[in-house]
Amino acid sequence: MFTFFQKKQKDYPDYWLAYEECFREKNGPEIFNTRFVALDTETTGFHYKNDRVLSIGAVSVMQNTISVADVFEIYIRQDTFNPETVKIHGLLREDRRVDAVSEEEAIRQFLDYIGNAVLVAHHANFDLTMLNTALKRMGLPKLKNQVLDTSVLYTRSRITSNLIDHNRSYSLDELADTLNVAKSDRHTATGDAYITALVFLKVLSRLEKKGIHKNKDLS
What is the pTM of this model? Predict the structure, then answer.
């Protein structure tokens, strides 16, 4: 029997297929035994279509510990340049890192690093949209990982009160100051990823005191 309406399987590269294969093995239900990856991107600007990712930084978190031996940092070659954002990320047009790689190679290495980990970012929508836009340019689907936003988690961790503005969006600096997290290497992808990981652990501790111990209860 002919299957005229069967959807044609796309011919994705091996690194994407290997990434998808990771999700055959599900994360356990407990937060403590789940691998989280705190990440941050530095970009040429804030326009999803026209701007590009300059660098990706990420650190691994598991069993309430940041693994300093499991850190990801990569820089991406590009021609797009926005002088307005230099004051934020500090990377100039003349900065040509010899270790910078193509966008596709950076994404390939990033997928290999994250696997099926739960991704954590501050104001996660921006970073994930930039990464998913890069994937789209490469003809690939969006990231499959569960994603957590530290700003949203922090709001949930606070004592319930009518005086709390649940729609407020907290900056990473605000959370670092409130939670007594040192802000070293601020506005570098790896530095911000590390700060995000520390904030995440502090917020997790608060949530656990409220009886939250399962991954599904974080989303």
Answer: 0.87
